[in-house]
Amino acid sequence: MNFVSTFNQVFMLFALILIGYTANKKKLITQNLNKELSNIVLYITLPCLIIKSMQYEFSIQMLKSSIGIIIISIAMYLMSILISFLVIKNIDVKGKVKDILQYLIIFPNVGFMGYPVISAIYGDSGVFYTALFNMPFNILVWSFGVMIMSRHSEESSDMNLKKIIINPGMLAIIIGYTLFLLSIKIPTPIYNILNVLANTTTPMSMILVGSILAQSSINDALKNKYLLIVSCLRLLIIPFIVYFTLKNVFHLNGLLLGIPSIVSGMPSAANCAIFATKYENDHILASQGIFITTLLSVITIPLIVFLMNNKY
């Protein structure tokens, strides 16, 4: 896909974010509705998108590529964790602020931003590999992520294998990938239902992101130098390291290059604020971090795509 087409897709997503932002400011979407929309996306439409996008005939090539994308994802998260420790160690932050900044650096927003952006650029095949790329995220967020958020909290950590495996995204990946491995085709009536629901994921997710952004103050976020450092790492430095390593060291191209590069440049995960609230951490700082990284990603995501299209 050329740069103009990609920019048009990203601009469309930005327009949907703006609609959500305006709707919240006009009180058409409330905070309670945000929670309900989040549940609809995470528990219904996104799993439908994942399962539907994995409806491919089994092939050895796709199997090899899927294993490769999971290995790349694991390496990317290990790198992000290492970077987060190095950064936190060298800036003057402690306690809950340290927890939030580290979480913001490590975990990208794949659910609400990653899938829609990849779907807009690469279509169903992109979502197929993105779902697999997201498997380490699902494991880490319920283990290492919970550990980070709860280490300065009186709220007990509830890490367990059940939460790691039994969540909507992970279950959808397991179901979809099993169907792919066995080359099982979903009956047409059921596939049509999945398709209709899957098609609502992108507009609903983007409107939801916009509505969430409307509840934060841009001035407070922009004045926080630590959040600007986090934004630079999350949106530029990490994806550029991923891109140049995969391209120049491992000589990858196509989806194995594009998906890790783009997904690694997503804004900070929206569940940072949710976990911060649950574990009595700094949910205000978490919301500001999500806000500023999401806002700036409207510029940086097309920049990453431009870089890839020009083959630097």
Topology:
Layout: H1 3-25, H2 31-53, H3 60-90, H4 95-106, H5 110-122, H6 124-133, H7 135-141, H8 144-150, H9 161-165, H10 168-181, H11 188-198, H12 201-213, H13 218-223, H14 225-249, H15 255-263, H16 271-278, H17 283-309
Helix pairs in contact: 1-5, 1-12, 1-17, 2-6, 2-10, 2-11, 2-12, 3-4, 3-6, 4-14, 4-17, 5-6, 5-12, 5-15, 6-15, 14-15, 14-17, 16-17
Brief synopsis:
Helices cover about 80% and strands about 0% of the residues. The protein is built from 17 helices and no strands.
Question: Can you describe what's shown?
Answer:
This protein is 78% helix and 0% strand. It has 17 helices and no strands. The radius of gyration is 19 Å and the shape is globular. The model has no long low-confidence stretch (mean pLDDT 87).
Keywords:
single chain; 312 residues; globular; 78% helix; mainly alpha
The SSE string, one letter per element, is HHHHHHHHHHHHHHHHH
Strand content: under 5%
Instruction: Determine Rg (CA atoms, Å).
Output: 19 Å
Distance between the termini: 16 Å
Summarize the amount of helix as a percent range: over 70%
Query: Largest beta sheet, briefly?
Result: none
Structural class: mainly alpha
Show unreliable segments: none
Shape: globular
H/I helix tally: 17
Mean pLDDT: 87
Total strands: the figure is 0
